[in-house]
């Protein structure tokens, strides 16, 4: 914690060639509630845990549609995400107006990434403290991208961001071979199972129609991004057949999830300590 | 109090990915006098405690109309609130001029939030030290929103901000199930009872026509924001049947308020110490 | 005095959510010589103690007319006040030119307050170190406002600013019930008696035609701001029947002022120490 | 000398509400050589001690004409004074061009003061380190003003600025009752006697046609500012009948000056130490 | 690590005439995964190790085409590289539009270098933390250039950048005499053998069709940059006849690589410690 | 050397009202090689010691013509001088173009001084580290001015700037009564004798046609500035009859120079230590 | 090395009137590889040691043509040199376009120097860390200039810059009398002999056609700058008859070089330690 002198000004490299401010901004991404994305050869699915800052507030949106064919899951500073997603919507609209068709997903993602990169090089702004999972389809098929505060972009088959996401990533890595050929329903189940892992060590929390959102977009005739929230989520959750609250969530999930989850649980304990959502 | 180096410049992330200046601005919101908002399926009610900086001054306005269908309750730095609310009025006027109808509530709230977010990312300005409860109706029904110095927005069924507001939030959380179907009169009583909780531990203070304001907006033919101040508030207070000053306020309120208020009183003592209104 | 790190830059919040630079600017207001304002249902009266920085200089103006119907009493940094009052005169002129009638008092006051607020949020300027008492009449009647370095505005029935003003405020609070129905002459006497209180503990100083100015504006046919200085003030002072210099000023004033002034004297001693005019 | 943190940036208030940089700029004024101004009902007289930075240099001008009817005496940083006086000349020219007559003295002085005030509020510039005594006549009679680095303006009957000016001010205060009705000649003598006081304690210095300048402007037909330098000053000095060098200057002056000068000498010793011209 | 005061601000020289911030940016280049370039009299070949930040992500592109005749291999901060390569593509397009033919390679490289240099001299931006190997052909033949964060440009016959690149450079230096007359196939083998050296000390890593990309551009009729990725790379790898995993990679490579590789291995150990990819 | 806090930023006054950065810039002037100027009623003469930074370099120009009637001698930072003299040439050209005649000398000097003053008040620039001796004639006769980094201007009969210039000033002060009526030849001799004083204590240095330049401008028909360099200087040096190298220069000069030079030598020793040319 | 406070910001003078940042930039010049320039009455010759940052890179250009009649040798930061030389080429082109003939050498040099000076006075940029030797001919004959980071310009008969250049300067000083009348061939030999001195103490380095470049420009019919590199240099080197590698270079050179080289060798040892090329 005493890495002074190089970490307060984003325009300064440390002697090791690192941009510490950017790395700290990535910590802000880790503090958001968990989001998960998975991509098959035909579909992309986003799943997100909606966190409510108070019992009196509606859960905040964690998955937001950008254009007909693109949706985004958010982890990090909500106000920064709103600014970026608004810009994404404007770019898509502008593209439709100018070219008469939908913005390719990769192009949109790189526009966002350029916005993020600029904030890491100019002294007048801080980096955006938000990570996005961008799901969309275009002529080249379905795509799942991740953007970072650093301006970097990753092309993914699956990813989990936010608090306690390490356990979700462990799940995804174990099942990634099954994604490519998975059906729409199977892919949604994978996303929800992975999301459920992030709650496995928290006794009184479990996925519900209230705290969970799912977004799906597919190739084919209907290339539209569908967002499932509230009661629409319940059938999807039911299809997962999570263990109901009884016994510790971790034990129960171990029984139904693939055999190697116990191994991932050990990672849980480590990540629990460093994540403070 | 020794969190130096990361907390003086709003554009700098701490190693934990936090923006401490924004968090400090939120403390400014806590120093304002209490405001309460509640939302039913048909109405939104704001109630505010007006604080006078001197016996010689008129009480400052804490609830201000923005447009015919929208009103705002303020907690935090009054001068910042004036700037934001003035901007909100301009935006509503502009919207009526351009589109010929009323600004949707959510759109207005996000405009304010974007203004707030910008101040957290540019080095030339400090964050706005004010929180707003925005009440309004539009075609999608009644809405209660909260804006924060961080630029975040919350969609709410009820909320209390400002000094000693924890006790009001406790009240609201206990009664939130009753809000949705509450009548106009019942909803006003809930707002005033919650507001009264913030005074419960202060012996010589109680709600009066002088220190209290109420704002109501409803769906239906008359979608106008009504502000009740001075003598107009008295009937509303009378309807609450608060205990008159006699005995300690805390004890008395316990008798008439729901049974679990004593539990909330324990929270009082904690919040009393950190709030210094 | 060791509140370092948060108090040198106006754009920075302290961890308690305070803007210390603004609070220090308010100290500059306290260092000005005393000004008093009182408002009845029909009149507003300003009274000010003119301080001379040398026997060789004419007393500086402390009450200045802004427009026909508005005048201002100043406490704080004179150069800042000159800039603000000049801007107020320009705004009034502009309003008469555009709308053909007099600027409403409240609107003018909020323009000033916005100027003050901007200086508290932008890093390129310090806050204005001046407080104004603004007296005026418009269609909604007589008004007395106070503006602060913070950009806050107060709507008042009476107020005293500047060095040793606490004793004047104590006087005003004791007599505030009499203001509303007071005649023009009675209201002027109240203002001068309150102003006299600020001198009560200074042995060789007393109000005189030289060091004192009075401004009056009334509703009715003649809605003009009248400024009384030099020999014009003497009749007003004579009407107050202050005790002539003989014995200590404090004792004498106690005899003629309301009975509870002795109580206020105890406050004197405290405020004397912190005020260093 | 350890008033750190609040005194290096002019835009920052100290916790006592002071602008220390402005106060330090006023110290620069005290380091200039002495200038004196006196004002009667009909005339204004400026007198200045010209200091030469080397025997090889001509004495610098300390009294400069601004317009036909206005002249200025300078104390402080010469380069700053040149910038301000040039601006004053431009404004007078502009006024004559636009309005066809002479700039009122007070208006010109307030233009200068506004320039000075701006430098105390913007972070991009330091305050002007110069004080001006402005002498002029207009339709409202003769005027003597002083401008300060703070942007403040004083309306004066007499004043002395610069090194060892305290003794001159003491002289002026003792004789100020005689100024109003003084003749042109008498007023010049007062100015030179006051100026001579600033040299009283310096053994080998005395007023001479070389180191002294006098400026006079009067009401009446000839409202022009007359500047007396070099040989023109000698008759004015002769009329003063100063004691020639012999014995200490202080003693001698005591004999011819009014009886209470010995009292002022005690002030000399104090001010000698803090003035380091 | 205590080289304070001169290394945090890029605009400041150290007393030794060094720009430490630029040197730290060069460290960022060393942290990228390895890239290799070799140039013969007729061909230029780029080879790169694609690193995946997660098993779930596709390997990031390390070799990107710029124009028909130019390609670039990247080492360092990916987001900075994306900004620079995008600018390069724009410049090539613009050149084709204006002049009707392909941008000369050297001219393009110097445009990039000027962008980099500007960031080392202006205070508002940090240096770009990326190094590029630029391969292209134009009328003057094949070219291999390296650009640096400092804005410097090198004209090369071979080069390796990034993590553990010292061992690759050692390989290139030993074989550089063979490059000039090497066939297309031989040159590709040299590039891959050099790239393989960077993995020699890492037990479980070896070049594969997944983690490796090759780019080739040649003079002659087809002056196009060809990029080989995924399955296209396998034949090229097969042609190298690397030892399959079995025994330590270092030992095996020693057997098949030129005789002096053991000597280079000693360099490995040194560079391993300072490289922390 | 511990005058911290007030001396690094030119826009900041020290508590004593001083601008230390400006004072340090004046030290830069003292580090230049010596220049001398003398002015009679009919002529102005500049003489300068040209210092070569290497035996391989031509001596730098120390006296430069500005316009037909004006020349300048430079002491301080050469690059700053080049910028200022270029600006002076532009202003003279512009004046000739607009008004059809030569720029008055005083006007040109004040333009330069204003440029210098601006740099002492704006935070974005440092003061110019150069002093100029400006020699010229116009309708009001011959003029010798000195400009300073502070923006101050001095009107002179003689002056010496730069390293070891104190001894030259001592010479000038002793002979200044002879300047006014001196002939062209006599005035040149005075300038060279004074310049020679600056070398008096340096054993192996003496004025020569190589290291010395002389500029002369006179009233009368030919009001042109004549610059004598190289072989043109030799006759002027010969006319001075300096002692040839033999014995110490100091002793020899004492014999031929006026009798009071020995007295000045004592000053030498003092100034030698503080000057480090 | 503890000259803090005055040396990090180029806009600040030290109390001794020095601009330390500029001095540090000059250190950057010393770190470049050596360049030499010599000027006769008819020719100017540049010679430079090309340093390769790797065996794999072509030697960087150290002598670059600017216009037909001007060439430049570079020592210092290569990227800064590229920016400056590009600007020089633009200015020459512009001059040819506007005036129809070649830019005078001195004028071009002063344009560069002004660019350098600006960077030493404005806070937004660092000084250029490069020194140039500019060789050219124009109507006034052949010219050799040196520009510095400070913005200073020197007019030279010979000069050496960069690492170990002290020994070359010693050579040049010993032979400077021979330059003026030297033939083209003799002048080239002087330049190469001087350049060779910078390698004298490095055992395995000697001038070769690979690491050495020569530029020549002459008056007469062909006023073009000729650059000799690679095989073109060999005849020039052969004409110098340097001792072949055998024995220490220093000893050998002593035998063939003029007799006083041994004396210069003593300087070698001193300069070796401070130069760290």
Automatic annotation (TrEMBL), chains A, B, C, D, E, F, G:
Gene3D superfamilies in UniProt: Glutamine Phosphoribosylpyrophosphate, subunit 1, domain 1
Chain residue ranges for the region called Disordered: 244-277
InterPro entries this protein is in?
Ntn_hydrolases_N, Proteasome_alpha, Proteasome_alpha-type, Proteasome_alpha1, Proteasome_asu_N, Proteasome_sua/b
Bias regions of kind Polar residues — which residues? 247-262
Q: Which Pfam family, any one of them, does this sequence belong to?
A: Proteasome_A_N
Q: Can you say where in the cell this protein is located?
A: Cytoplasm; Nucleus
Q: Which GO terms describe its biological process?
A: ubiquitin-dependent protein catabolic process
Q: Which family is this protein grouped under?
A: Belongs to the peptidase T1A family.
What quaternary arrangement does the UniProt entry report?
The 26S proteasome consists of a 20S proteasome core and two 19S regulatory subunits.
Q: What is this protein called?
A: Proteasome subunit alpha type
Q: Which organism is it from?
A: Cyanidioschyzon merolae (strain NIES-3377 / 10D)
